[in-house]
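R.M. (postdoc): so does anyone remember the format we settled on? I'll just put the structure tokens first.
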């Protein structure tokens, strides 16, 4: 036919009514040949070689668009046949089948695109656009197949399958970009919602398994590392809280292990926020186990979860130790593996430091995780402070009457409630050393917050201030002097123990300023009736030394059965080893207070991660 057309130029062109019979017959033979080639191309058994010959024939017949359509249809049909033969095995290979599907789909797209460029050229926009449109349909087909054949969304297998599919598919998309096919954005638009759906379903399952201990989880194999790390904080009266902590870490670890690098890149922030929500709910559960908490408070889904109350100091500290270990040790290590970050030992226990400068999304997450832990820490501190401020009968040990009726102390010691505070902090530090071994950072955080909480409570206690403002009450200069001494004493406790004392100092200064204002308005001139500011600082330091030396025996203000609520300072066993003048203003030589070891601000500001940035 090519030869006939070359020899007879009149044969070229369309058929018209007055066309000579020869030309009409020629055009009919041409149409018949075209139909025959199309039928051959559509045969299921046609090989690639045969198809190429057929398509070249169509191209020579001037039917390039039809040939291109048949080419894409051939590769689509071949792909679907391969997938149909593979699908029965998806139920067996639930974790890895998306990898095979991705390979089948994207390798088929790649071959088809190369054949299209080879036969039709890569500079024809019409053909190139057809390839892109066809490839997009195949990608949609892949996404649908993965969704239809994956395990239920709440299973770890579904999370693994989604992660593998996203990782492999985006890698293939990167390769195809060199061939002029940009499918990454389309794939993410189609597939990310499914990844988010699977993540949300997995975290819903995690909430059930962690907080409903009757929920069966047959595939949950507990890591001995998590069991060992958290079992040391078990409460003897009830191990359910420890079980919750272990389950928390195990389920989070199981989910994190399924995430591929590209899932972390595109959905990592969502994963972090869901871990935060899970941890926040875990903290709410721990708060419920502390004294003073109402079972009617908190989240509805936790109201039916019943645990034994942590009544003793050691049990309450164990609860904080469990939450802090997850926050400061276990989660950082798990995240470091998934986010591919460097970790370093802090030199304290097993705590890990993550360099968040290479993962900016961790910075905000870190801040919110600390805020969540603060709920537990602050609740513990408030209840602890209230337990020594109020007696069991509800009477206030720390009230304005101390500064209105008591006579001046010749030894310039703080008032009995603040001596009791000093004693309680010592006792708690000893218990913390036993319950939280290797967790000096947490011990310092708690003791610093306890000191601060006392002054915050005093600052907010309106009945305390109303008593001073009452015109019928007579004020004396020594009352103001004693209150200022108590505030300085509290600041010096924090300074001496090495806590970050600036916040304590700020709150104490606010209390002193308010007291001076009230006393001044009542006719007492602080300039003429009070010693210099340096006197209060030295008196507070001297008082700490006297109390550490045990030179003053203090009597309790009321009897209690368990001894924990006594306003009394117990002598330290090693007090006889101390030497030096009790009047010294330098407290760094006192060694009996080892449980109040010094701490820097840097240690207390960031108990989970540190940034490498200045």
């Amino acid at each position: 036919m090519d030869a006939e057309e070359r020899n007879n130029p009149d044969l070229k062109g369309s058929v018209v009514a007055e066309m000579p019979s020869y030309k009409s017959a020629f055009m009919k033979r041409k149409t018949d040949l075209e139909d025959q080639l199309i039928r051959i191309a559509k045969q299921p058994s046609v090989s690639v070689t045969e198809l190429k010959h057929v398509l070249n024939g169509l191209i020579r017949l001037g039917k390039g668009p039809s040939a291109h359509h048949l080419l894409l249809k051939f590769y689509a049909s071949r792909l679907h046949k391969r997938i149909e033969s593979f699908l029965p095995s998806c139920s067996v290979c639930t974790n890895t089948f998306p990898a095979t599907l991705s390979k089948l789909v994207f390798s088929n797209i790649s071959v088809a695109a190369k054949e299209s460029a080879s036969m039709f050229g890569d500079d024809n926009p019409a053909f190139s656009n057809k390839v892109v449109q066809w490839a997009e349909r195949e990608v949609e087909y892949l996404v649908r197949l993965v969704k239809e054949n994956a395990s239920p969304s709440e299973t770890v297998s579904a999370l693994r399958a989604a992660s593998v599919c996203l990782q492999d598919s985006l890698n293939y998309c990167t390769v195809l970009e060199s061939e002029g096919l940009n499918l990454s954005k389309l794939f993410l638009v189609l597939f990310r919602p499914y990844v988010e759906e699977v993540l949300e379903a997995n975290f819903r399952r995690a909430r059930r398994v962690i907080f409903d201990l009757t929920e069966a989880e047959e595939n949950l194999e507990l890591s001995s590392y998590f069991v060992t790390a958290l079992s040391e904080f078990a409460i003897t009266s009830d191990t359910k809280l420890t079980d919750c902590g272990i389950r928390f870490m195990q389920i989070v670890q199981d989910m994190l292990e399924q995430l591929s690098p590209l899932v972390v890149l595109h959905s990592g922030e969502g994963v972090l926020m869901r871990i935060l929500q899970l941890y926040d709910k875990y903290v709410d559960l721990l708060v419920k186990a502390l004294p003073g908490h109402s079972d009617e408070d908190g989240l509805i889904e936790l109201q039916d979860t019943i645990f034994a109350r942590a009544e003793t100091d050691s049990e309450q500290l164990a609860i904080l130790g469990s939450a802090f270990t997850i926050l400061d040790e276990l989660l950082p290590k798990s995240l470091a593996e998934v986010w591919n970050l460097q970790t370093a030992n802090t030199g304290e226990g097993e705590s890990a430091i993550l360099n968040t400068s290479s993962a900016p999304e961790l910075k905000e997450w870190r801040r919110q995780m600390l805020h969540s832990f603060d709920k537990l820490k602050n609740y513990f501190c408030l209840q602890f402070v209230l337990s020594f401020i109020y007696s069991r009968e509800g009477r206030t040990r720390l009230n304005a009457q101390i500064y209105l009726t008591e006579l001046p102390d010749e030894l310039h010691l703080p008032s009995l409630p603040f001596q009791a505070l000093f004693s309680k902090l010592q006792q708690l530090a000893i218990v913390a050393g036993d319950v939280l071994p290797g967790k000096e950072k947490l011990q310092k955080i708690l003791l610093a917050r306890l000191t601060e909480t006392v002054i915050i409570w005093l600052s907010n206690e309106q009945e305390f201030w109303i008593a001073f403002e009452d015109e019928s009450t007579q004020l004396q200069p020594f009352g103001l002097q004693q209150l200022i001494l108590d505030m300085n004493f509290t600041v010096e406790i924090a300074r001496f123990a090495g806590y970050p004392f600036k916040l304590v100092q700020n709150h104490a200064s606010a209390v002193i300023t308010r007291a001076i204002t009230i006393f001044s308005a009542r006719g007492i001139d602080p300039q003429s009736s009070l010693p210099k500011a340096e006197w209060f600082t030295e008196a507070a330091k001297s008082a700490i030394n006297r109390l550490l030396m045990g030179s003053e025996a203090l009597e309790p203000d009321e009897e209690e059965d368990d001894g924990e609520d006594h306003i009394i300072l117990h002598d330290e066993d090693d007090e006889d080893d101390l030497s030096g003048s009790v009047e010294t203003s330098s407290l760094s030589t006192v060694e009996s207070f080892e449980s109040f070891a010094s701490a820097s601000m840097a240690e207390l500001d960031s108990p989970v991660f540190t940034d490498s940035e200045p």
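R.M.: ...and that's the designed sequence above, right after the tokens. Also worth knowing: The CA atoms of residues 546 and 582 lie 6 Å apart. Residues 425-605 form one domain.
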